[in-house]
Specification:
The protein is α/β, with parallel strands linked by helices and 310 residues long. Helices cover 36% and strands 21% of the residues.
């Protein structure tokens, strides 16, 4: 049995600063990237936020559909959100433009009504959906989905520079995490949440922070140092594969999308194959890092990459 994965989160255009000062528009948004990544890994995936009727919105929608995912909500007359991205040594920093935009043009009631038409599977959210004041809508969807029997996935993916009140933002994230079954966080997220300076050796401490709140599957990523994945008490760690780095845009989204796809397409025995799942996710993220912007690999590309590492 294959479980559906439905995603609630932002879809936007990353306007990437070029050396000559011009901006190159690339499709992005963490949950949108994850939607594409999971679909390209062979999962049954749907996207729950509206796309804009503008040119950017229709491009985003067409790409998502070409990757095999479904756009589940009617288009919005509001414009597509924009992010201005500056890369320094391959690492992105972001400035967001998100007032009155399409992916925020939803109601919890409409999303929950859509979920009722699907067999319970995995509901994923996180990133900008958890930023006040919108977090109330995302949390309402999460609560409603839990009551219907959905497993809840949350990618913390904090954007502290966007927060008007960082403490309120942290509280909103912890509120969502406390409702989550599966959680992903990066070392940067942990620092903002009050756990600074952690390394791979400290990963069990970070994992425990989330499992104490009820999460049964937790991933902590440490950039080039690798990642730790725990599934129902079984834990694996792995260094990041060596890559010819282009940039890291979408690497974390590709990593978690591969994890979700593995669990959704093979629901049984997840704890027993935790090391295999981690290898699959790390390989997918590594392949993405060899490409410009977020371009997640297919399942076939990922399996071929894993085979080369053996």
């Amino acid at each position: 049995m294959t479980l559906p994965i439905l995603i609630l989160g932002e879809a936007l255009m990353d306007c990437v600063m070029q050396p000559d000062g011009s901006l190159l528009p690339l499709q992005g948004g963490s949950p949108y990237n994850l939607t594409r990544a999971a679909a390209r890994q062979g999962a049954r995936v749907g996207y729950l936020c509206p796309f804009s009727q503008d040119v950017f919105g229709q491009q985003l929608k067409a790409t998502l559909q070409a990757d095999g995912a479904q756009a589940l909500m009617p288009d919005s007359p509001n414009p597509t959100s924009l992010a201005v991205v500056t890369l320094r040594d391959g690492q992105p920093s972001y400035g967001f433009y998100r007032e009155g935009i399409a992916d925020r043009d939803y109601t919890p009631e409409a999303v929950l009504e859509r979920l009722r038409g699907w067999p319970p599977g995995v509901l994923h959210s996180g990133s900008l959906m958890l930023m006040p004041p919108d977090h109330h809508k995302a949390v309402a969807v999460i609560r409603g989905a839990r009551e219907m029997g959905w497993s809840i996935s949350v990618d913390v993916n904090l954007r502290p520079r966007m927060a008007h009140d960082l403490d309120e933002y942290r509280q909103a994230v912890w509120q969502a995490v406390a409702l989550a079954d599966w959680v992903k966080a990066s070392e940067e997220d942990l620092e903002v949440l009050g756990l600074p300076g952690l390394t791979m050796d400290d990963a069990p401490e970070a994992v425990e922070r989330f499992t104490r709140l009820g999460a049964s599957r937790v991933a902590i990523t440490f950039g080039g140092a690798g990642a730790c994945l725990q599934v129902q008490g079984q834990q694996a760690k792995a260094p990041a594969p060596l890559v010819s780095l282009v940039d890291t845009v979408g690497a974390g989204d590709t990593f978690w999308g591969a994890c979700l796809a593995d669990w959704a397409t093979r629901p049984e025995g997840a704890a027993e194959r935790v090391a295999e799942t981690l290898s699959r996710a790390m390989t997918a993220a590594a392949i993405n890092c060899e490409r410009k912007g977020c371009q997640p690999p297919t399942l076939a590309e990922t399996l071929a990459g894993m085979h080369k590492q053996e």
